[in-house]
Amino acid sequence: MADLYLKALESERKKLWATCRLKGLAKDTPERQRIAELDELLRAHKAKSA
User: Fold this and answer.
1) Over 60: is that where the pLDDT of 40 sits?
2) What is the tens place of the pLDDT at every residue in 2-33?
3) Secondary structure (DSSP) of 7-32
4) Which domain of life is it from (predicted)?
């Protein structure tokens, strides 16, 4: 069965990362901070799954 939560997190991260790259946003922007939060959520979810 597909892990929809994991897919949603990865999808949001990819979308935000593409936006940041396109606009050339700095590290202290809300978008980049959200990417860091998503990375932590992904790490925690993968650790819990394993």
Assistant:
1) yes
2) 789 999 999 999 999 999 999 998 889 999 99
3) HHHHHHHHHHHHHHHHHT--TTSHHH
4) Bacteria
Dihedral sign for Cα atoms in the order 38, 44, 48, 49: positive
Q: Is the pTM of this model over 0.90?
A: no
Q: Per the structure, how many domains does the chain have?
A: 1
Which residue segment(s) compose the domain that 28 sits in? 4-49
Place of tokens 């990865």: 10
Look up residue 4 and give its two tokens: 């929809």
The three-class DSSP label of residue 33 is: helix
